[in-house]
Amino acid sequence: MKPSDLFFVLLALMTVAPAFVVAFSRSLVHSAFALLFTLVGMAGLYGFLAADFLAILQILLYVGGILVLILFGVLFTQKVYTPAVTTGRFAFAPVLLVGAVLFAVLFVVLGLGISWPIAEARPAEPTIRTLGNLLLSRHLLPFEAASVVLLTVLIGAVAIARKELR
Amino acid sequence: MNRLESYLLISSILAALGVVTIASRRNAVAILMGIELLLNAAALNFVAFGRFVKNAAGTHPLDGQIFAIFIIVLAAAEAVILLAVIIAIYRQVESIDADRLRELKG
User: In angstroms, how far is the first alpha carbon of chain B from the final one?
Assistant: First the structure.
């Protein structure tokens, strides 16, 4: 086993194991902090996939932005003085069954069942310049649409969350 | 170890756990966490397929990463809107239990 393989396995464990805590922990705060490890592990996996810009973006946006928002949501919408901020469960056994079946279909049938045309290994080189060129040439329309979406979100979030003026 | 199948295994587990979280939790913020897990699994799949699988004619090898970027942007937008809605609901109902939200009348 090469050292990079060992590191990959550790990173994969760091991504997957906290996801179980996210799904099954009774405490919402534990779930939110477990999500932190999953998201950081995802950034490491992007590094293994030679996607340097995505790894940075994952840390900046997910860990720095979305996770903080989620923690804000958890702590803001609970009565923090009650000792345990917990969440109830709904129809747990059937949901577990559905999850297991979904995993089997995704991994065994779609992942291993299809023989994907594997390309020869590409060299890992910096992707930022290429991604920037692609975003402003081939993918210009979705790029502009995303900016409109972000503006709409900016206005919409303020409009929804503000106090009603009377 | 650094092969397509290992990434597919990771993303399948994350996607299944995301669905389990969405379907079994009652708290709306916990449901949001499940959505984030699902979106992350999808983005990881895009990048992994883009790296390991031969790209078809007329596509660029980094198109998968572009998809992942858009997924991250949309996830951020969706989290912001969802939290705004959750906070507005909390102000009205004093609870964000998804089972107790049965009224649409403001």
Answer: 54
Q: Which of A115, A33, A43 is nearest to B44 (CA)?
A: A43
How many structural domains are present in chain A? 2
Contact status, residue B15 vs residue A105, Cβ threshold 8 Å: no
Q: Which residue of A has its CA nearest to B51?
A: A49
Contact B33 A87 (CB under 8 A): no
Domains of chain B: 4-100 (1.10.287.3510)
* CB neighbourhood size of B76 (10 A): 17
> Same structural domain for residues A9 and A77?
yes
Instruction: Compute the nearest-CA separation of B5 from chain A (Å).
Output: 7
**pTM for this predicted structure:** 0.89
B33·A31 Cβ contact <8 A:
yes
State the ipTM, two decimals.
0.88
- Asked whether the beta carbons of residue A134 and residue B62 sit closer than 8 angstroms, the reply is yes
Q: List per-residue pLDDT tens for chain B, 106 residues long.
A: 788 889 999 999 999 999 999 988 888 888 999 999 999 999 999 999 999 988 888 888 889 999 999 999 999 999 999 988 888 888 877 777 777 777 665 5
**Where in the sequence is the domain holding A69, given as residue range(s)?**
1-87
- Sort out which chain B residues have CB atoms less than 8 A from A118's CB and list them: 4, 52-54
